[in-house]
C-alpha cells in the first residue's frame, strides 16, 4: 500500500455561518474531516493543513489577521502538523506543499475541505498532474450556491458536479464512512 497523506483544505472560520462566506453543509463536512483527521493521527498518516489568506488586507474575505482566517477548532493542527498558508486557489502554487508531501514520503493523497468547486478542485487536479493518486472524501467537503448567466445553481448540484468530475477523470470519491471502514 502506498503511503498516504491527508490534505485538509481551508476549513476556516470564514466559511461558518458566522463568517463572511458561509458554505452549505460546512458543519457536517467539518465533523467528517475531524473524524478522518483523528483516524490519520491514530495511524501515523501525516496531516497537511491548508489555510487561505488574501494577498492584501483590503480583500473582502480571508483578511490576514482576522478571525476568518483561523482554522476551525474541530480540525485544528496538532503538534508538528504542517500548516501551508496560501494566497492562491491552488494550494501547490507558491507554497511548499509538494516539498512537505515529499519530505513525509507521501505517495498518494486523501483530500477533504472547502470549497469543492475551488480550492478542493485545484488541489485534486494539481496532485493528479504531479502523479499522486487521489481520494476525495465527498462528505468532508462543502461549497455554496453559484450563479451564472442568471441561473442559480444550488450548492448540492455544484458539489455533485465536482465530485462527478473527480470520479470521472481524477481519482476515487468516497464517503467518510467508506474510507474509514476500508482502513480497518
From TrEMBL:
InterPro entries: Isochorismatase-like_dom, Isochorismatase-like_hydrls, Isochorismatase-like_sf. Signal peptide: none annotated. It comes from the Bacteria. The keyword Hydrolase applies. Residues 6-146 form the Isochorismatase-like domain. Keywords: Hydrolase. GO terms for molecular function: hydrolase activity. Transmembrane segments: none annotated. Its EC number is 3.-.-.-. This is Cysteine hydrolase family protein. It comes from Novilysobacter erysipheiresistens.
Amino acid at each position: 500500500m502506498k503511503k498516504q497523506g491527508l490534505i485538509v483544505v481551508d476549513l476556516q472560520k470564514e466559511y461558518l455561518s458566522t463568517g463572511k462566506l458561509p458554505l452549505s453543509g460546512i458543519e457536517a463536512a467539518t465533523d467528517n474531516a475531524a473524524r478522518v483527521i483523528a483516524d490519520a493521527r491514530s495511524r501515523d498518516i501525516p496531516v497537511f493543513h491548508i489555510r487561505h489568506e488574501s494577498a492584501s488586507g483590503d480583500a473582502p474575505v480571508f483578511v490576514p489577521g482576522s478571525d476568518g482566517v483561523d482554522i476551525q477548532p474541530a480540525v485544528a493542527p496538532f503538534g508538528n502538523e504542517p500548516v501551508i498558508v496560501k494566497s492562491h486557489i491552488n494550494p501547490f502554487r507558491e507554497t511548499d506543499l509538494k516539498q512537505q508531501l515529499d519530505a513525509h514520503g507521501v505517495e498518494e493523497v486523501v483530500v477533504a475541505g472547502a470549497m469543492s468547486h475551488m480550492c478542493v478542485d485545484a488541489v485534486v487536479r494539481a496532485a493528479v498532474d504531479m502523479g499522486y493518486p487521489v481520494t476525495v472524501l465527498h462528505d468532508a467537503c462543502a461549497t455554496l450556491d453559484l450563479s451564472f448567466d442568471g441561473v442559480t445553481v444550488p450548492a448540492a448540484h455544484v458539489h455533485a458536479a465536482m465530485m462527478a468530475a473527480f470520479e470521472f477523470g481524477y481519482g476515487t470519491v468516497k464517503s467518510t464512512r467508506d474510507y474509514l471502514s476500508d482502513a480497518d
